[in-house]
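Q: Here's a chain of 552 amino acids. Please give me its 3D structure as tokens.
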Amino acid sequence: MSDHFQTTGSPYAGRWVARVRGRIIAQGDTPEQALHAAQISRHKEKPEIVYMPVPFSYSPLIDKVRDTLVPDQEIYLVGGAVRDMLLNRLSPDLDFALPANGISLARRVANALQADFMVLDNERDTGRVIVTDSDGRRTFLDFAVYRGKDLEEDLRARDFTVNAIALDIRAQRLIDPLNGGSDLRLKLIRACSPTSLADDPVRILRAVRQAAAFEFKIELETRQALKQAARLLPKVSPERLRDELFKMLEGPKPDASMRALEMLGVFPYLLPELPALKGVEQSPPHIYDVWEHTLSVLAHLEGILAVLAPGYEAESTNDLFTGLLTLRIGRFREQFARHFAESLNADRSVRAALFFAALYHDVQKPATKSVDETGRIRFFDHEVRGAQVAAKRGRAFNLSNDEVERLRAIVQHHMRFHFFTDRLEGEKQGPSRKAIYRFFRDTGKAGVDLVLLGLADLRGTRGTTLTQETWAAALDVARLLLENYWEKPQETVAPPRLLDGNELMSALGLEPGPIVGQLLEAIREAQATGKIEDRAQALDLAREQLKRSENL
């Protein structure tokens, strides 16, 4: 079933129609409905049933590819790019399917576009073209031979029907053998075949991710199949599982995605530490068990990041807590944007690492739970032990050392923000210069993530019981930490070095050893707290510290 696609509006856009000799005689939500309606009015004639696409965004690169083709070259745009086109989104990935010579065509297209080329898969004759725009954005064009004997077999072997629509870029018509266009209009994720998930179990995660990304529902039969196939996930490489998980954590509604994965029974095979969080009770001010609290933190973290993103309209909020948030720390939007634009790894974002840390921040609460004589539930050292577990899971996913270190720092130090907030609210004492220095000394760039997680953690702890006073105290702590980090780093966070280790050893007659590092750190902290300002004072302090240590 196919039709010439169009970029102008149509009263039939997004519907199936029945046509006789080019004229539309009936319509419906599905091909069957359109055919049935046509048979009622024109029962003697055999209509053509076609899908009328909605107006869509069409990448100019598709025309450039078409211009490089030899006559009679059979080629189709397939998969997510066609889906995105019909949803009026531009995709950064354009996948093309053709009968043969995928690598050689990719090489020819790369030469024509003066773009980068690489062989993606020799066995499957797949080549990749990478087009880089002047602003640094990249578009990937993959050219692969059919999976199966022809295009239809290739489409039927794909994951979900909404991704199994092809565009003939020569004739400019859609090919949709599985009624993916109808599912797209109905906002439905449906497996292409009964073996779709067994063929590639990573599609379980992809179904959940795409449902969240497009606000689609997973069809009941497909949902049951996802549940049954969960046990096959260990067959998938850790890297492919990680990539789907991190896209989910970076995308919209990460809390809903995690809830769906838990309900589908995926966690024992993907994040085996998390099922233990369910039903673990917590004392007030917590209003949720540990699992529901974790999901709430993810939801609040997503909301907080949205409010602190550049371009957010502060006037558009009627929520008191959001209003206070923008008032106290909204001025740091550009700095937050730069923080999240930095890279720990070329393939994954700082934002995704933060959400992964949020998912694991209380992972060791079940193992550290105790009840004191008053009946209060406590979780001593859950953050220190949790950091080790989060780092171990990160290594199992083959995250980079920088990512693992970021996870460890966030989970290990996430209680410090709450200590500052409690002290400010209870004793009216904000963190001292020494406390601020030590906070960033121990956490580095993760300190920014900790501020955001601390705010989300507070909202996810107290929910509707959170008072304006407690929230204001937390925001004051956040503002103070961020001011020091971004606006006066040379005063409290990273004061300029007054002397180095060699100068210190030379002046005090010291041999290399741990004492040199300890003295340099004492000098740095004294600078940060305003006790010393120059080299002479630094040496006096070092002599004093040295004398004290020798007398111990």
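Q: Can you summarize the key feature?
A: The CA atoms of residues 61 and 94 lie 9 Å apart.
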